[in-house]
Amino acid sequence: MTQVDFYILTPQAAGDRFGLACRIAEKAWQQGRRVLIHAPSLAMARHLDRLLWIHREQSFIPHGMLGTADPALNPILIAADTEAPDEHDVLINLADTVPDYFSRFSRVAECVDNDPQARASGRERFRFYRDRGYPLQTHDIE
Q1: What is the Cα–Cα distance from 28 to 77, expressed in whole angstroms?
Q2: Which residue, 89, 4, 95, is CA-closest to 45?
Q3: Which residue, 40, 63, 33, 38, is CA-closest to 50?
Q4: Mean pLDDT of the 15-43 span
Q5: Which residue did the predictor score with more confidence, 111 or 84?
Q6: Does the pLDDT value for residue 59 go beyond 90?
Q7: Mean pLDDT throughout 42-58?
Q8: What confidence score (pLDDT) does residue 7 get?
Q9: Once rounded to an integer, what is the mean pLDDT over residues 94-113?
Q10: Checking phi first, is residue 138 left (phi over 0); if not, alpha (psi -120 to 50) or beta?
Q11: Which of 80, 61, 64 is nearest to 72 (CA)?
């Protein structure tokens, strides 16, 4: 069964859910995992693509856009909401809703920042997973 982790930025934390997604993706990649980042729109997917290029000044995170990047060379792929990927390891969700294909993944990371709408939709997603019996963990990130 898919393990679901909610990463919640505390009120005093710097950054937003996109920066948090970069941090989670980098850590998963360092652990040898394959990552799909689910963005709610093409514009946000492109924004995340740019962020991953500049996330760390002295390191490179191999990534690309789903459909244009070679999955064999890019362990981190970014998908816009309309795309259904062929990945199964780690899913990082940046949308306000749960992706239809989430249960294909061994792990799901939900990123929640201090935006009131993001908090509210995060609570809805938490209830969605809980009501269906998925194992949940929460992590407060400073």
Answers
A1: 12
A2: 95
A3: 63
A4: 95
A5: 111
A6: no
A7: 89
A8: 98
A9: 95
A10: beta
A11: 64
Cα–Cα nearest to 83, from 29, 39, 33: 39
CA angle 52, 92, 58 (to 5 degrees): 25
User: Residue for token digits 């919640």?
Assistant: 8
The answer, yes or no, to whether residue 106 has pLDDT greater than 90, is yes
User: In one letter, which amino acid is 84?
Assistant: A
Give the tokens for residue 139. Answer: 């992590």
* 3-class secondary structure per residue, 73-142: CCCEEEECCCCCCCCCCEEEECCCCCCCCHHHCCEEEEEECCCHHHHHHHHHHHHHHHHCCCCEEEEEEC
The two tokens of residue 130 are 């809980």
Closest CA to 42 of 80, 94, 14, 11: 80
Given a contact cutoff of 8 angstroms between Cβ atoms, the answer to whether 87 and 105 are in contact is: yes
